[in-house]
Amino acid sequence: MTKGIPRAHYFCVLGSALLAATCSYGAGVIEIDEDSWISVGGGLRAGYSSVSNGAPNGSDNANKFDAQSVRLYVNGQINETVKFTFNTACVSCVFGTDADDSLHTIGKIAVLDAIAQFEFNPQFNIWVGRMLTPADRIEMNGPYYGLNWNQYTVPLLPSDQLGSAGLLGRDDGVTLWGGIGKVQYAAGLFDGIDGGPNQGDNSLFSGRVAYNFLNMESNPGYYTSSTYFGGLGDIFTLGLSYQNQADGVGTAAGPADFSAVILDVLFEKVLGDGAVFTVDAEYKSFSAPISTTAAADPDCFCLFDGESHFATAAYLFANSGTIMGTEVRYQPYLRHTSNNPTKGASSDLNEVGLNFVINGHNARLNVNYTNGDANLTGTAAASDTSALSFNVQIQI
Is the pTM of this model over 0.85? Predict the structure, then answer.
């Protein structure tokens, strides 16, 4: 659940993440000639968490240091029209040692994005390859451009299901995108679930249209952010996303059609003293009517069926402080998530946090406290859990 294009340089690309398209401000650029170049960058999200009653004994807190997202961004331009993106990510990043305790190893390295980009004009462009499926704002943010730290506590789409129908919000396909006046659009066809319930080899349709009532949002491609820290002035954008795949959920013996309708809104107001007030909210409706028999099958491609929503409010203080000589702006936030499946128990989660903004999305620290039972599937956890975490995000 991530983006891959760093943003100060238009195609220093992303990055789920956790979960990131992300070009960064300081990515190295190799100029080949007047129109051709290659850029290289990277991203890291890491932190420490303490989860109540999460230790193996069931009574003590679980304490964990975690490299949550590690990404390498490679982008290039052949000419002003033809460009490319190649990003990698560490999936299940677990640092450890081998049998003789001599070498440190890293988790599985996966291709995040591999895109041939044909960019003709602001109104019409074509991307082909492996890329983010056009979807709701938190998908288009990736983890690196979110407002709060724990974006992904609502039901996720097929391309987030750890490889069965894509990975970290990505899938193989083609996307058409652009903007006309105040409207921005992106629509594409993708593989979706391959095999399993999809014995007819149906494609997944994914599309998003957004209307900018105030200032236009400006991002690489069709990606988004959930805050611009006031850099784009006043923002009020309403987005509508839709996904559909015939026989997109269930099993080969018990397939069912999948569809999702998602409405998201971003409001950002720059106040007179330079402070910034931000609201990021979303409503999701998933249709995945899986039979009881199919749901009991361990090979079921089962998705959430029901409704969910979240709302986040944040306030970025105008005046900066310093931490160890580094200028920092403080951005406290509150977030509430609620998931209501058609069958089974509802779940929710509250998060209160503080971002220490050093250099926009390229350098920030975070501390947050969460309480509730919501998880990525939208179903209730075994019990309410509280967690305190300290985190760092760096991109270059």
Answer: yes
